[in-house]
Design goal:
eight-stranded parallel beta barrel, about 40% helix, 14 helices, alpha/beta, TIM Barrel, about 350 residues, two-stranded antiparallel sheet
């Protein structure tokens, strides 16, 4: 079974990390089935967030009896030290634990630092001294922020989008983490659902021995496929390499990382959500996305003037007006018969 060590944390776990964002969409009973089956078959790393509605509670109810046998990472969107302390206490209560293995700042617009006036890093450090968190991490969708965090020396782990649709710049970030002994947790290993070959995704990421992918799971069939990789891990065969190369040619221009460098939009389109709606509506709770407000948000795409200010600011070179239109067309097809989950 392939193992990865998360940098200087010395957390060693197998390469099948459990991404618990999608379990918001299922019942407590079904989430418990998934979580326990994952653990029973060798999964030991579970990633969640304070912002993922009831995800933490579902993990707490399902896995508290084997707490010391697993690693739990969660996140806070807190903007100051007081909010962080409140979030952490809530997370600990819901997770039914007295410590979190990795506590991550959730996609901040700037890198929290000691003395920056927010009190965020100081609050995290105090919680670490109290034994409530063991390692301080950060998640982000912005290359510059991610690189700054790694170079700061303040963070034990970085969570960042990484898949075989990655650019050379993102690959350099993975290597920088290895050089700086910072654990790299790969979110969006399936590019938010754009990648449909889990075997190809696994085989590619397994080439990076410092990367821990967290695979978003909401169906038992998905979990079973990942579990099967433990016994027979996919390798970069000629067939899988062909899948990767084909997907890169077809999909690289469609993967919005939600970094928000394109914002603000002159006509107030929420680009960072709208340009990835096809992913959001299928992988996160859909109630808001299909609500009246959600539909208004998406229909605003029709006001796009093709000014291309967003495209010029996109660090990934995406044709954002085209991507917005594609997502709106897909959204309209879904909305006509969607089941709210």
């Amino acid at each position: 079974m392939a193992q990865v060590t998360l940098g200087r944390t010395n957390i060693k776990t197998n390469i099948i990390g459990f991404g618990a964002l999608p379990i918001q969409r299922v019942s407590q009973e079904y989430a418990g089935l998934l979580l326990n089956k994952a653990y029973d078959t060798g999964v030991t790393f579970f990633d969640t967030a304070r912002s993922y509605s009831d995800s933490e509670a579902k993990i707490g109810l399902a896995l508290s009896h084997i707490r010391d046998n697993i690693f739990i990472a969660t996140k806070t969107p807190a903007r100051n030290g007081a909010e962080l302390r409140a979030d952490l206490e809530t997370s600990l209560s819901l997770l039914k634990t007295d410590y979190v293995d990795i506590y991550q700042f959730h996609n901040p617009a700037v890198v929290p630092r000691p003395g920056d006036g927010t009190g965020l890093y100081e609050a995290a450090l105090k919680a670490k001294e109290e034994g409530k968190i063991r390692h301080i991490g950060i998640t982000n969708h912005r290359l510059k922020i991610a690189e700054e965090a790694v170079l700061s020396g303040l963070y034990d782990t970085l969570q960042f989008p990484f898949s075989y649709l990655a650019s050379e710049t993102e690959i350099k970030l993975v290597k920088l983490c290895q050089e700086r002994n910072v654990g790299f947790i790969a979110m969006k290993a399936l590019a938010g659902g754009l990648i449909t070959s889990a075997a190809a995704a696994y085989a590619y990421l397994a080439e990076y021995d410092n990367v821990l992918p967290i695979w978003g799971v909401q169906r038992e069939s998905e979990l079973d496929e990942f579990i099967s990789f433990m016994a027979t891990p996919p390798e970069l065969s000629a067939e899988i390499t062909k899948i990767i190369n084909t997907d890169r040619a077809l999909l690289s221009d469609n993967f919005c990382r939600a970094c928000a460098y394109c914002m603000p939009c002159p006509v107030d389109i929420q680009i960072n959500n709208c340009a990835r709606m096809s992913q959001l509506i299928r992988r996160s709770p859909s109630a808001f996305w299909v609500s009246e407000d959600g539909q208004k948000m998406m229909n605003l795409i029709e006001q796009c003037t093709n000014c291309n200010k967003c495209t010029k600011k996109c660090p990934y070179g995406l044709n954002i007006p085209l991507l917005l239109k594609q997502n709106l067309d897909d959204y309209k097809n879904i909305i006509s018969g969607v089941t709210v989950i």
